[in-house]
Amino acid sequence: MSSMTRPLTVTVTGAAGQIGYALLFRIASGQMFGHDTPVRLRLLEIPQAVRAAEGTAMELEDCAFPLLADVEVTDDVDVAFEDANVAMLVGARPRGAGMERADLLQANGGIFGPQGAAIAANAASDARVVVVGNPANTNALIAASHAEGVPAERFTALTRLDHNRAVAQLANETDATVGSVSGITIWGNHSATQYPDLSHATVGDRPARELVEESWVRDEFIPRVAKRGAEIIEVRGASSAASAANAAIDHVRDWVLGTPGDAWTSAAVVSDGSYGVPEGLISSFPVTSNGGDWKIVPDLDIDAFSRERIDASVAELVAERDAVRELGLLRER
Ligand code: NAD
Ligand code: LMR
């Protein structure tokens, strides 16, 4: 029998939502930290959805997961983030009919500012945060700015779903297995401006660019990956949930346990100025983890096409940052 380590506390916000439902059972069954690490779950919901979250907590109990040490449901942010080692910020305000972009940013600022402050006040000293709720990069920026005393590097946003989508599309096109694809990068924002980049990708031991047409890359691969979220909404009638939960688990697992070998993945992390991305923005990069800290993969060659695409997505992030700053939603630290 393997020896058990101490339980890790995971806070999931928006726990009664569809991503929450696809996420919690996988965390509790050991799919995020492995089969020798017990977990305590703290589920945060708004008051109207607390009862539904309690129903999910009952089902978690009914699974009798050996690794599940405890589940707590609350609508109080301070209780929710108490001792959290990992915070998965899924709950967000969706765009409603007639809502302008500024209204959406404002509504989400009202959620992610207080959550950032509550993380700083209550979470464990090693807390790591991934924002899933959209607009994910800018919500992460807002939360980080309110988390006084917490290193900005601990706040990230999810672009692993985009990364996984890109891997799957390239594998399909080249009739290869997903396991043989590496070196894909998602740059920029988790939005339609993102740049899925396969210029450094390999399939088996061959450069991807030798295996696919340039026209396929520009006219099919890039738009298909960048607009996949909207396509899922159209076809499924609801936004991606199981694949988003799966990507969030991949993100946290690789961050905490480390990326395997010398393979990189994609995550939106705070920029240190690499690749011309303004310092402090939370933008997607190629990253590795040593088991605790993301590191941006250095010194990749960026061709003119990639430069233009990265700059376009980063410009959107700058515009979002400036908009939330103007709305008073960012605390300068
Ligand atoms: P959902 O509407 O099913 O669930 C969201 C839940 O969040 C609801 O139960 C709601 O009550 C809760 N919530 C709202 N405000 C909250 C708050 N202040 N505190 C705690 N909980 C709160 O939505 P979903 O399908 O689970 O998606 C959640 C978010 O994830 C959306 O913003 C969606 O756009 C985003 N998303 C991101 C990615 C990504 O790759 N980054 C992928 C898919 C979806
Ligand atoms: C996705 O990429 O599937 C989502 O971010 C789409 C959305 O707007 O919720």
TrEMBL record:
Known catalytic reactions: (S)-malate + NAD(+) = oxaloacetate + NADH + H(+)
Any coiled-coil regions, as ranges: none
Gene3D superfamilies per the UniProt record, alphabetical: Lactate dehydrogenase/glycoside hydrolase, family 4, C-terminal, NAD(P)-binding Rossmann-like Domain
Top-rank lineage group of the source organism: Bacteria
Positions with a binding annotation for NAD(+): 14-20, 108, 115, 132-134
One Gene Ontology term of the molecular function aspect: L-malate dehydrogenase (NAD+) activity
Active site: 190 (proton acceptor)
UniProt cross-references to Pfam families, sorted A to Z: Ldh_1_C, Ldh_1_N
EC identifiers of the protein: 1.1.1.37
GO biological process terms on file: malate metabolic process; tricarboxylic acid cycle
NCBIfam families on file: MalateDH-SF1, PRK05442.1
Function: Catalyzes the reversible oxidation of malate to oxaloacetate.
UniProt similarity note: Belongs to the LDH/MDH superfamily. MDH type 2 family.
Protein name: Malate dehydrogenase
Gene: mdh
